[in-house]
Amino acid sequence: MNNKIIIAAIAVILSLVPFIGVDSYQMHLIIMILIWSFAYTAWSVMGRFGLVSLGHGAFMAVGGYGTALMWNELGLSPWIGIPVAMVCSGVLALLIGYPCFRFRITGNYFALVTLALAEVARQIIIATRETTGGSLGYTPETHGEGSSIMALQSDERIIFYFAAVLVWILGIVIWRMVDGSMIRYALEAISEDEDASAAVGVRVTKEKLKVTVLSAVMTAFAGAFYAQYQMFISPDTIGGVGISLQIVFAVVVGGIYSSLGPTIGALVTLLLAEVLRVWIGTDIYCVTDSVCLNLAGAPLLVYGLMLVLFIIFLPKGIVGAMEDWWRNRKADSLTAK
Length: 337
Hints:
Blueprint: H1 3-16, H2 24-47, H3 56-74, H4 78-102, H5 107-127, H6 129-132, H7 157-179, H8 182-192, H9 194-199, H10 204-230, H11 235-238, H12 240-254, H13 261-280, E1 284-286, E2 292-294, H14 298-313, H15 317-336
Antiparallel strand pairs: 1-2
């Protein structure tokens, strides 16, 4: 099963989708899947090497809120704001990552540190409600009507569609570049045994920081792109623990060790979210006139249950399971000959 051919085929199909008569809602759903695919790919870049971060919601928030605030408060175009927000996210990753990696805070302890980072970011957004809008959300100011290149705003959904396709391709390219570089072998060795890796000359802290900063910068870009497309952000949409857990869930479901895994994870996550939204309808579900249930946390409950099931029965995710099946099928056919 050649991943390059599959990726190329998907890219061609995506390029043709707007010309086959999809409606506005369907195009919106595909755009959201592509944006989140990039965010999930960003997490997979470091997560596949055992660096399990539960704080990527914070990096998305830096990208989205940083870009929007610089536009609204300082008048800086997103062309400037997005790179600045990405740099800030990289610096934040350094501030968190360096002491963790320097003092061997790994595994579950590293996950807990990043989990705290996501919650701190969420609380900061809520506490500074006069500037960020708090839990009510924040809206970048529109730059007149129609499209604006300077403000990276457009009423034409098809423009964002093709931009999202390019961003998705960029994420796949970055993932494969890391996979084909020497960094991969260094990080795989580190994930197996840090002491042995250091003994043969691998600079453990530096290699970990490289991939962590890259992942954080990519995630910040995803947050900024989301903000420019949706023109609305809140702690529940691009920040906080909930988003961080959603990212981990999607990558595990799709397949953490495949470049297409995050994309499949995004497809499953977004479609599942839509099904739950239609099925549940509102946060309050009344069984009878006198018995009502608060289902506000139902999606997270479903995500959690599915995550446990996938970790137990499909640890390599959907794509990993399909690749194993394909290899076994080829081996069986060769044996039969």
